[in-house]
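User: I'm curious what two different proteins look like when written out as structure tokens. Can you demonstrate?

Assistant: Sure. I'll show them one after the other, since each token string lines up with its own sequence. Here's the first protein:
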Amino acid sequence: MTTANDPWGRVDADGTVYVRTADGERVIGSWAAGSPEEALAFFHRKFDALDTEVALIEQRMSATEIAPAQAQATVQRLLRTVADANCIGDLDSLRVRLEALTTAVDARREEVKAAREHARSEARGVKERIVEEAEHIAAEATHWKASGERMAELLEEWKAAPHADRAVEAVLWKRLSAARNAFTKRRKAYFASLEAEREGVRVRKEKLVEEAEALAGSTDWGPTTSAYRELMRQWKDAGRAGRDAEAELWKRFRDAQDKFFAARTEVFAAKESELRSHAGVKEQLLAEAQGLLPVTDLRAARSALRSIQERWEQAGSVPREMREQLESGLRRVEDAVRKAEDTQWRRSNPEALARAEGTVNQLRAAITSLEAQLARARDRGDASGARKAEEALAARRSWLEEAERTLAEFSG
């Protein structure tokens, strides 16, 4: 067999195949099946396959498609393979490339570690926020439906959130569970107390309903109306029972009131009709009384008025809104008859007549004296005296007119 040489290896005359590296030559096999050139080509192909593997891991590292641990395992395997590779090619170059990949894997591992720590830190922040909100709800929430829905949403947010450090997450999960349990406990306690309160309200309203039903048949209209008003006030102050109990009790309470007020309305309607019939009678009596005016025959007028007053009292009550109009109309007739009586009395009283005549005479004499006094003051040119005399005359003349009217009534 002849020999064959290559920059990276050779085949000697006995068929032994060598590869050249920085550490020297190394036997990688023997070749007896063909020419030395064929041997070199065969072992080059084996190198090319190994070079392809190295290029593939370089590509995967460049595209960040591989985890650092997997990349490191692949690089270490290839380093061992290159160290003992039975192929001809630049093995030193492959080793250098793989060692460079080892450095890149270490850097990638640090990047992944930093990214993982950052993600865990962010996850911790997210879950701490979830826990803090849950604890706030557990401690202070009173809108139970909305708060319960939010607590369920927080649990789903926890499940969807990325994982934090295991020890930190365990502590946070314990706090979240405690918050959920505390909220559930508070909510149960609230609804238990609410149920007890509603039961107390139901008992109070049951008593109010019984009182209302006991009054439904009463005909003592005024006091019973006041009693129902007080029962309604107590009903409003009592609070609310459960929905079904509240509706059933309110129906009974309302039915009792309706029964009483319907009966009262019926009675009052009949009473109103009766009062209006009384008013009709009194309107006729008032017209009869007004027919006595003006009074010309006092005795006949007084007798007729007495008869009217007696029938007026017998007629009974009238509606409140008509009472004042009717009463004031009759009072005006009564006042006119009374005034006629007073006038007749004054006319028939000798002493009163004498006093009226004496007053007129005194005023006439005073006026005559003041007229003379006024004349003298004017003659003297006494303006002040004249003014005083005029003022006194004006007053006496006014009094005289009134006195003469009074005297005329007696003489009339």
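Here's a second, unrelated protein for contrast:
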Amino acid sequence: MLEPQDATEIAVTADPVPGSNGRTIKLAIAATDLEIAQKDAFWTDKLDVYVAQRGVSGAKAQVTGQALGLRLSPATYQKYLREGIPFNQSLEVGPGVGSVRIVVLDENSGRMGSVTIPAAAVTPKL
């Protein structure tokens, strides 16, 4: 979370858009970088998505997280391989935050990817 460089084993892109409370970050997670496994008729995986609001100095962070369970039909799996896995994260940036880092961990493979966004990009304009 506090490393200066983003993790690159999983490609993650982020697009901040206005939301009702602060901003919503629209993520696209590269399904081709995940180890999604076929189980019966579905493709499954579990992703852990962490959001770290890092202080201006970069030495401290407030971290929240959630799990994203994937159980995909073959058609959805093929679509996500082409377009990426969509994931929306609502976010209210606290005072003194310099940047927001979103980290994605693939539980099947242990690979990680992250993207860092300047706090100004996710703070609503008044």
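A detail about the second structure: The mean pLDDT is 89.
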